Each structure stands twice: as C-alpha cells, then as structure tokens.
Amino acid sequence: MVVSAPIKTQETGEVAVTPRKNWLKLILVCVVLQIFALLFTEFMLFVAGFGEEEIFAFDKELGTKHMTNKRITWRSEGYGCTYFDANGMQEDNLTVAKPPNTYRVAVLGDSMVEGLQVHNEDKFSRILDKSVKLADGKKLQVLNFGTSGYSTAQAYVQLKNKVLQFSPDMVILGYDSRDIFENWSPADATLSNVRPVALHLPGQKLVVNSAGIDEWMKSPRAKFLTQISWIRQNSRLWGLISAMETELSFNNTTYKTAIELITRPKKAFKKIWEECSKPEFWDVKKLFPASSNNGPSFKIPFFAGKDMNADLAKSFPTGAKKRRAKAAEATTADTKSGASSPEEQVVSNATDIEPENRLTGAPSHRSHNGGKGRNFAELEKDTVGKAKTAEQQPIDEGARKYIDLMSHTLSSLVKEMDGICKANNVRFVVAALPARIGVVPYPGTDTTMYGLDYQGEVGIVQTACKKNQIPFIDLVKPATELTPKEKTRLFYSLHLAPYGHKFVADRLGPFIEELTKPQTGSAPIGR
Questions:
Q1: Taking a C-beta distance cutoff of 8 angstroms, is the pair 114, 146 a contact?
Q2: DSSP one-letter string for 323-353
Q3: For 341-353, how does the pLDDT look when each residue is reduced to its tens digit (9 = 90+)?
Q4: What is the C-alpha separation between 487 and 481, in angstroms, rounded?
Q5: How far apart are the first and last CA of the chain?
C-alpha cells in the first residue's frame, strides 16, 4: 500500500509527491494471505484425507484414549476410514443405552482389535455383527474398545471406568504379543507407551498404578501437547507435522530444549545459566565432537531425560518393596557384571523388538538384519539360527523369575476383570489374537524375549484362564496351521489385513454362539 505525502520544493515552489509505504497495512495484508493459505491447505488436506492419523487424547488414569468427534483416515499401514464419536467409539449411531432385544459384546485390546488399518466393514467386530446368530434370537452388537498400544492393565482400567457404562453382556479381552511385558514398562516419547503399570508381588495385593502417567504429564512435552490440544484435534497440518515432532522428541536435544523454554521458561533459563557457568560447557571438543556421523555436531548438555516411573515405587507398600528387592536378587550378579536387569532389558528391548510407528503411535515393524545388502534367503537362515539358539539356551534365573512375576501379574489382572464382570452379570472371555511375530515373522526379526516366544506367551495366558476358570480361545494355533500364502495374507506389515480380520471372525463367531447357548439347569449369563 502506498500513500502520498505533499512536500513544497524551494526551487520551483511546486508541490512534489514523495511515496511512503504504510508498513502496518502491508503486514496486515501478509498475515491475511498467510491465514488464507493455511485454511486453503487445511481444506485440501481434508478433501484428500491426509493428516488424519492423530488419534490420542490424554487421560490421567489410562494414559491415552481416543480423541472424540474426529474423522480418521489411516494410510501408514493398509488403508482405512473411520470416525470416533463423542465417546471415542467407532460404531455408527452408537448409544450408551443398550437397544432392546440386543446382546452386546465388548472387545478390549490394542491396535489388533482397533483395526484402523482396514475399513469399518472389514473389521472382525463388524463381521461378527452380521455373521453370528444367537440361539435366543437376539441381535448381536459388538463394540470395539480396542486402542493402539493398550496393555492388559489399561484394559482393566478401561473395563472399570468406561466399558460397563455400555451394559455389555460379554467382554472379550484380546491378547496380543508382548502384552505381558507392557504391564510394567515406563513411558517414553511414543504416546501409546504412556500407560499405567500393574504389579502383583507374592503375598501382596495387585497394584495398578498411574504414577508414571502423572510424572509424564509434568514433562515439558506433555505440557506442550496439552496446550495445543485444539490444534492436535482439528489441524491436519499438525497431523503431518506430528511424525517429525515424535521423531524429534526421541533424540533431538535442541527440540527438547525449545519445548522446555516454551512450557517452563524460568526453569529452562536457570538450567542453561547453570550449565553455561561451568568451564567444561565451553570446551570446544565437547561442543564440536570430532566425529560427525552420530547425530548433530552441536549439543546442549543440560537437557537430561528422566525415568517417568522413577517415583513409582513410592506408592507401593513397604513390604512390597522388600519383596520386589528380594525377587531381583537373582539378577544382581548380572547387573554388577554389566548386564541389564530384566526390567531394564524390557525397556531397552521394547523398541528393538516392536518399535512404535512414529507417525501414528501405532506399533510397527523393524527388521533386525545385522547389516545391509543381504538377501531374503540369508535373512531367513539367520532367523532359523536364532530360533534354534533360543531353544538351546536355557532362560537364566533372573529372567525366569521376572517372567514368573509378569505371569502372576497377568493372571491377577484377568482374575480381577473376571470378578468385575461376574459382579455385573457379564461373561468374561479371553482370546489370543494371531500376531505376525508368532505366525509368519519377517526374516531377521527377534521372535523371543528372554527366550519366551509368542506361543509361550499364549500358553501363559491359557494357564491363567484355566486356573481362574475363564473361557479361552486360541486363535494363534489355527493361524500357524495355514499355508505359507494364507499366513502372509493375514497381515499387512504387522497388523491384520481384511483376510486376517475375516479369519478371526470365522473362528470367534462360533465360539460366541456356543457360549451364549442356554445351559441346562442354569440361567445364561447376560442382561
């Protein structure tokens, strides 16, 4: 915008016009154009369905839960469109109140149950709605409570806080690989790993604790994401940026520093001043490392990560602490010699065995081939070799005790869930879901943790159900009996493909029909 300012010259006495820019109006025009560009970009992303994979809201007890009133278009693995309603549920026109003449089945679990990788009509929960015929003529309605990254402890909390509000007649807990270890793992930069922990020590009561969630919510990144919750909910541009944000939150010190400056400026500047006051801070060799192959050359050393579960033990009874220490004695020698404790190994191995997809927060697959340029046959040979080695090497005593502790905790969780269901006249069932790592693992993938493979995990779950007289169905074994081609069709890179969802529905359907048949001499369970 240009305005004219009249000035009288001395030579001619004429009035000359000198141009002058109105910078305020120019800035205003630029801002308006930028806003228009952003809105136009958001609209185009909406039309194309991009940037719609941000699914997590925060919850003080669950850690994470589904956002509400949001369209989801999944492209990271497979392709699926769905919508989270006001309750974060995927079912169309769902009401909290159960319709008349309806038998409701609530399915709990992680991303295998959630099924964002396929369209709604291809999810096994939707297939069951149409295929299962109940003996009493009631209409079956399956509610999908699956949420990416959920552990058994989260399913337990979800059952108490949300599921029972929908008046289910049956609750099915879907077990997926590594769930047994996820009940005791610290939060990290991946949102789906922000969860409560559970532990049942010998002679003590089962404890389900959210101290790790509370601590994580105090972190700079949690405060930042909370402050921009409206943007995370509504912006598709942020949906695309979130991939980079998650990546930076793992390893980029500069990004972490910037977030702390935004959320806790006073504390951040104090840290920076303290570090700058140290002579070693200005050591050129430390500021500019000789090697440039391991990340950025400039590092700010003041930002240090914190174990979000560091304060967790404070909430356990004193007797439990002593028993915990006693249970860990077997690993003391290994720890002193440089080996990690089982708890530390669970944390460090979690990203090596099943890292999270940093774009979506959903589990993804990473191959461990030990090098580049190796062909499929070589990798397959390595996989067989690793499996044989795992079979030949016995589990060390510390790992065995840790697995026993996690098994006892899992058994207690399913027992508690069964008790809650029975108190509300609901049938509780456990289903072991087929997982790629246990059916058709990628060549080079580590298929065991502490020598325990997925079939071993399923065996632990089955034993827990048998001990507590809980109906159990193993969907892993029939999957391993398929032809190699059929096994591959079950999955995308990690999650179930449409063929896999149909496989689950075809076997879970008859199981539900059998459980819902009226039993001679007893009233059927259900409301």
A1: yes
A2: HHHHHTGGGHHHHHTTPPPHHHHHHHHHHHH
A3: 444 443 333 333 3
A4: 9
A5: 72
Contact 86, 68 (CB under 8 A): yes
Average pLDDT, the chain: 78
Token readout for 507 is 């076997």
pLDDT tens track for 232-241: 999 999 999 9
Task: Please name the amino acid found at residue 526.
Answer: G
Burial of residue 233, with CB atoms counted within 10 A of its CB: 0-12 exposed, 13-18 middle, 19 or more buried = middle
Q: How far apart are CA 179 and CA 109, in angstroms?
A: 9
Helix axes 397-423, 342-353, angle to 10 degrees: 80
Name residue 153's amino acid: A
Nearest to 429 by CA among 132, 172, 139, 115: 172
Residue 207: phi, psi to the nearest 5?
-120, 125
- Domain 56-219+389-515 fold: Rossmann fold (3.40.50)
CA distance 144 to 106: 6
Domain boundaries, the chain: 2-48, 56-219+389-515
Which tokens is 295 given?
């990340």
CB 173 within 8 A of CB 429: yes
pTM: 0.74
Lowest mean pLDDT among 164-178, 204-218, 267-281, 365-379: 365-379
Pair of tokens at residue 370: 């030990």
Q: What is the CA radius of gyration of the chain?
A: 28
CA distance 222 to 214: 10
What is the number of alpha carbons within 13 Å of residue 157 lying toward its C-beta? 21
Distance CA 88, CA 83 (A): 8
The secondary structure element, H or E, covering residue 460 is helix 454-467
